[in-house]
Design a protein that fits this description.
The structure is a homodimer.
Chain A: E1 2-5, H1 10-21, E2 26-32, H2 40-49, E3 52-57, H3 60-73, H4 77-91, E4 97-99, H5 113-123, E5 126-128, H6 136-146, E6 147-152, H7 162-172, E7 186-192
Parallel strand pairs in A: 1-2, 1-4, 2-3, 4-5
Antiparallel strand pairs in A: 6-7
């Protein structure tokens, strides 16, 4: 059994596929801090992929502290890293094998080697990032091999990553999220193919 | 098509399995520097796993420089890293998708993130380390799930990793390899199971 942090995006979908192909019973988890129901897209995608999915409601203070780090630094890296680490720390008390969709070329969120060692040893868990050894081009090839992708036009659909709730929370406290987050295209998995390769 | 550096050991066998499950046509490559025919075990294991295998004969000067680094430092890390990088550089001129069995918890051989970026960009290749996101315990579980393993008693069988030829070459030039390499158990894959999970 492995519990995979799942945003409904291409990367965590590919991570789910790899773990399944390795014989794991994969359960998808989307975290939520009670700001908005940003887990809906992940829920839909989990259904398309055929995996069990659950929402884990975590303490809003994790998100608040993450946002305050983003405001302090003026860019999201530290804040998002903080949130991801806190999420892993919290879930590690409950789940013995935890995974995420972090890729080799991701800058954030990313744990250092020492942080990973520390997490696994303190909590006596296994932490798996199945995409960590794959570069940008390889992941693009694999995603095209296994998934049908649709681009999400900015603002038309709420994605299920940390950014969605961070943005909402920032607006609530009168901050403009566009000052902190670069414009970037998002996409979602709308179908699978070659699943049985 | 992916070309995987293959020693016949558990890690590169698991890397081969993952790549195959991801739909790649996997070819196994064992390098040889002309010191001894250390590729025999890899050849046998490739047959057990059902993969195509070939031996790539590379310039002996790569091994010689690696050994001189080991002698200079008094331990094998730099020398083995040097050899692995040179092997990747050389094969990258010939193969467009290269892989190896490096694990998250391996100290050597290991490329830094910048070295990986540089290799991929200069040579216009993809470099994949499928095990990089998996820790020691997870890899142990996966190996037990898919392979039947036999321990190799020290010195009874020549393994197909760099160490075998390094040790032979050291003896040829009058050095004692046991002064530089720690005693460690080696093992080989003698069968597969649950292949179709």
């Amino acid at each position: 059994m492995v519990y995979l942090l799942f945003s409904g995006g291409k990367d965590s979908s590919l991570a789910a596929l790899i773990l399944k192909k390795l014989g794991y019973d994969v359960k998808l988890i989307t975290v939520n801090f009670g700001v908005i129901d940003s887990y809906k897209l992940a829920e839909e995608t989990a259904k398309i992929l055929g995996f069990e999915h659950r929402v884990e409601y975590l303490d809003k203070s994790i998100l608040e502290e993450g946002v305050s780090l983003i405001l302090k630094h003026g860019y999201p890296a530290e804040g998002i890293n903080y949130i991801h680490k806190k999420v892993l720390e919290t879930l590690a008390d409950k789940y013995k094998v935890l995974a995420d969709g972090i890729r080799r070329d991701d800058k954030v969120p990313k744990l250092t080697y020492s942080e990973i060692q520390s997490l696994e040893m303190r909590k006596n868990i296994q932490y798996i990032s199945p995409l960590l050894g794959f570069g940008h081009k390889t992941i693009k090839d694999l995603i095209n091999r296994f998934f049908i992708i649709e681009e999400i036009k900015s603002g038309t659909k709420i994605t299920s990553d940390y950014e969605a709730e961070i943005r909402s929370y920032m607006k609530m406290i009168g901050e403009d999220p566009n000052k902190y987050f670069p414009e970037h295209k998002q996409s979602r998995v709308v179908g699978v193919r070659n699943w049985e390769v």
